[in-house]
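Quick one, T. Sequence first:
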Amino acid sequence: MPTIISIDTSSDIASVAVLHKGNVWADSREGFSSHSLSVLPMLQSLLEAEKLTMQDCDALAFGCGPGSFTGLRTACGIVQGMAFGLGLPVIPVTTLEAMAESCRQKTGSQHVVPLLDARMHEIYWAEYAYENGAWRAIIEPQLSPIADIHLKEEGGVFCGNGLKAYPDELKDTVSGSSQFPGIFPDAASIATLAASRFRQGKTVPVEQVQLLYLRNKVALKTAERMALKEKAHA
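Structure tokens:
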């Protein structure tokens, strides 16, 4: 088994994890504004607790998106700096797949639809099926208005903070399905997924790391924000 450090700062919760000899140790902190300050101290504490150093690691993994623009850049920057310094490969993991994996670990669900609040009355979402020990994307990660969420297969469970952010708008979409709103992208699930990819040789040189933003426009003008508010209350 490889030893992997993983980081996620794509949402309001920053998390770090260390996978070593098949076990995962993780820590997390809430508070988006402190992500850049909390990640490295949390990681150092985990490594010290397990009597490991960064030089003991085989690869670095992180949540590459979708998610908060600033948060994704924070995790990517930290991982790139460590990878350059240590000469390690990187394993980017989609945050929505990490949510699906977390949901599977906690509930046993093998058909999962993660819903991550993208603000502006939009949702980051995908549809996944767990088959032969890996996730298959039935629908690849999307950024959509809530009304445009249409699944290809029935029987999936829903997870993520989108369920809390837009309960009324999602009511018809999730009706009759199990819902787990407390699941976020997390470093522990990212580490688990990254270990499998490491064994398959699916790593990325640090200079080729890319983020999955989905939203090209990250800021709206005042008039556009007002138009969205009026539409939401129409």
